[in-house]
């Protein structure tokens, strides 16, 4: 699986990159036909601090495209939540 990580208004730290890569690579266990995955991480300007950290995950598998988005106050929590949504779509 080829993983691309893009950020907007966010500095990608090595810790954040390693965390995101390790979490997304686990998708191969549940859907082995994944060709490519794209993770977009963004900090949006909103009034609510609880909805600023946005994680969007798009997965291309043979013949299908899956997409999930989640917003929380912490980027690590957003990554976990978006992967939970993706697992539910796969199952």
How much helix is in the residues? Answer: 25-40%
Structural class based on helices, strands and sheet pairing? alpha+beta
Q: Number of helical runs?
A: 3
User: In percent terms, what proportion of residues is strand?
Assistant: 35-45%
Spatial extent as radius of gyration: 13 Å
Average of the residue pLDDT scores: 93
Shape: globular
Order of helices and strands: EHHEEEH
Strand order of the largest sheet: 1-2-3-4
Task: Tell me about the largest β-sheet.
Answer: 4 strands, mixed
Ends apart, CA distance between termini: 19 Å
Could you explain how this protein is built, in words?
The protein is an alpha+beta fold and 91 residues long. The protein contains 3 helices and 4 strands, in the order βααβββα. A 4-stranded mixed β-sheet has the order 1-2-3-4, covered by helices on one side. Helix 1 runs parallel beside helix 3. It is globular.
């Amino acid at each position: 699986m080829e993983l691309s990580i893009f950020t907007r208004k966010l500095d990608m730290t090595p810790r954040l990159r390693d965390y995101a890569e390790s979490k997304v690579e686990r998708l191969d266990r549940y859907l082995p036909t994944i060709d490519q995955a794209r993770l977009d991480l963004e900090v949006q300007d909103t009034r609510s601090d609880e909805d600023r950290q946005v994680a969007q995950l798009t997965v291309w598998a043979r013949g299908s495209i899956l997409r999930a988005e989640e917003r929380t106050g912490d980027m690590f929590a957003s990554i976990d939540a978006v992967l939970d949504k993706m697992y539910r779509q796969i199952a």
